Amino acid sequence: MDGGRDWSAEVETLLDQMTEYYLQYTQARLYAPGELAVRRGEVDRSFFIFSRGSFEVLVPGDEGPCRVRVLEPGDLFGEVGFFDGLPRL
Fold first, then answer.
1. How many domains, in total, are found in the chain?
2. Neighbouring residues of 16: CB distance < 8 A, sequence distance ≥ 6
3. Taking the complete model, does pTM exceed 0.85, yes or no?
4. Per-residue pLDDT tens over the stretch 57-68
């Protein structure tokens, strides 16, 4: 430790630099109502960050699809598949 130095400016700069770097590899995508982004079991390295609208997260259930969450602007998903490269759960 350095005696309580405030690292907030350095951390903010680093986060800005990381964001700029990763945004180079992004693309905007607009989904139609009812369109699927991912399917259980598929291998996909996509990582989603929502900027507008909403997105239902549905999982198979005994009586049909079951909604487990609604994603809104600022929410994200897919980060695990992005990093581990394993099939979607």
1. 1
2. none
3. no
4. 898 899 999 999
